[in-house]
Amino acid sequence: MIKEIQEGYVKSETHRGITTIEFFHPQSNSLPGKILESLTQEIHFAGTHDESKVIVLKSGGEKTFCAGASFDELISIQTPEQGNAFFSGFANVINAIRRCPKFVIARIQGKCVGGGVGLAAAADYTIAVEPAEIKLSELAIGIGPFVVGPAIERKIGISAFSALSIDAMMWRNSDWAKKKGLFAEVHPSIEGMDESVSRLAESLAHSSPDAMAEIKKMNWKGTEHWDTLLAERAAISGRLVLSEHTRLALQKFIKK
Predict the structure, then answer these.
(1) CATH superfamily ID and name for 2-255
(2) Residue 241 CB neighbours (<10 A)
(3) Is the CB of residue 250 less than 8 Å from the CB of residue 141?
(4) Are the CB atoms for 5 and 32 separated by under 8 Å?
(5) Phi and psi for 221 in degrees, rounded to 5?
(6) What totals of helices (H) and strands (E) does the chain contain, helices first?
(7) Where are the beta strands (DSSP E) in 39-157?
(8) Could you give the CA distance from residue 238 to residue 223 in angstroms, rounded to a whole number?
(9) Across the strands, what pairs with 55?
(10) Could you read off the pLDDT of 14-71 as tens digits, one per residue?
């Protein structure tokens, strides 16, 4: 299944129990609302169908896994309601992964920014390549990693999350991300990463679905309130994105 979205797409394929969900956008795999909506739908669909045993989440291209929120869409937001609706898209994807009874493996072939770090953190197992640097750049444009924050903090702890969110312009390398627990594995080459993704996905596709679902529930214990929490965080971002500081910062970034 392929959903075309303004030059980008979300596509999903299932083979031998492995559902691969791939998203792409020509602006460094940024995430407009339509892609976020389609990702939520595809993750939910795979999670509720017996044909899918495990999910691999990936993006198209080679250099960037995900550049985070679409700046074009951010600059077009005119009301708090529109802002809330946009940032709720990130909340919906994270909660879809959280509620999905199937394991989600994230394939990180390049840099992660903002919401891209949130996707990597929300996945149950994340496999990356060495050039996959990360940063949370939200503060640099006058907002913050409010919606993705709980997923990232859950993976790497409050201290590392605070460092990422405060020093918003500093890249952390893949070794840092692995040591902090964001990446489960880091490989020197795309080929090595893909081999590991395939090995794990095939192994999980032959594992007990009931056992995996119980392990996932155990691993996500304590996040049952995230439907409410992430909605509250989306409202904060939706309000801040309308500030004069953020509007000016976004215009500067878009002109670069």
Answers:
(1) 2-enoyl-CoA Hydratase; Chain A, domain 1 (3.90.226.10)
(2) 24
(3) yes
(4) yes
(5) -60, 140
(6) 10, 10
(7) 54-59, 64-66, 104-108, 111-113, 125-129, 134-135
(8) 22
(9) 19, 104
(10) 999 999 999 999 999 999 999 999 999 999 999 999 999 999 999 999 889 999 999 8
Question: Which amino acid is residue 19, in one-letter code?
Answer: T
Report residue 12 as tokens.
Answer: 């999903």
Q: What is the identity of the amino acid at 166?
A: I
> What is the pTM (predicted TM-score) of this model?
0.95
Which own/partner pairs from 74-80 qualify as long-range (CB within 8 Å, at least 24 positions apart)? 74/141, 74/241, 74/250, 75/247, 75/250, 75/251, 75/254, 77/238, 77/241, 77/242, 78/242, 79/242, 80/235, 80/238, 80/239, 80/242
Tokens of 214: 């119980």
Question: How many residues in the chain?
Answer: 256
| Domain boundaries, given as residue ranges, for the chain | 2-255
Nearest to 22 by CA among 60, 53, 51: 60
